Amino acid sequence: MNMDPSTEMSWGTLGTIRPFANFNAGKDARDIQAALEKKDAVTLVKILTNRDNAQRQLIARNFKCIKDKELISALKKNVSGELSDLLTALVMTPLRFEAYRLRQAMEGIGTDEEGLLEILCTRSTEQLSNISATYKEEYKKDLEEDLMGETSGNFAKLVVALLKKKERAGEVQTDTEVLSEAINKARADPNPWISILTSRNSEHLNQVFDNLEREKHEAVDKSIEKAFSGDLKLGLQTLVNCIQKPHLYLAQRLDTMKAAVVQGVMVAHSEEDLLCVRVAYLKQTGTSLYTALQRQFKGDHLQALLSICRSED
């Protein structure tokens, strides 16, 4: 069946979670209330993984009216462990969830640089601006200031540039020459790399990368590997991977099979492009995500992840 490409690529069509037909927020809220009282995780999973986020927000609002209590608080009180983390993530708005993930990456001893980079490299300028506003609302802190406080040196410059990225026009050939010159120096200069990679669109940058790869006879991330070190190297390589093959990058994140990373990617992308990430995962690992989850997780937590994943590939 031929589809109009604009329809095919519209918001939500590449996600695994769609709006639930015959949705009744009041009934769902009452069913969740009963399930919480009975510690019935099966019902909680069935409802919360089969409604889209807009519907889950309506359920939460109805739950508050019935119980005079936040649904997230009730879930945390009655469900434990990784399942509790997953269900509360589903009840957050997408912006609140991304703000929460950034906060988690900066809290405690040490900073989770990869966690920061995943969000900063895969989200658009508009999304990051909205995430920043939500972060301020939730935590009464400035996201840019927190990022600068948790990172240092050129890596700090990179994460702030990613947070504030603003697209500007550039010449493919000029950008290629500037980047090439910057890594040909005895001591590579990261500033042009940070500036250009955070201010051009993906199509433009992919042309620049093609030019660099022809000139250097190696992949761009290999050139970065040789020229830079530490967190900056990780940051630039992650950014290049996200520009070249964003779904493959997210598939590689899932392949860590760390619960927090898997839940983060799956919930954040469940209504956007998780189908594409699933395809990339299968291509990368030779195993479907649905099967890989069954090897790693168990119980009600596994059932919730499988429900978000939706099906075998």
From TrEMBL:
Highest rank taxon of the organism: Eukaryota
Query: What name appears for this protein in its UniProt entry?
Result: Uncharacterized protein
Q: What is the lineage of its organism?
A: Eukaryota, Metazoa, Chordata, Craniata, Vertebrata
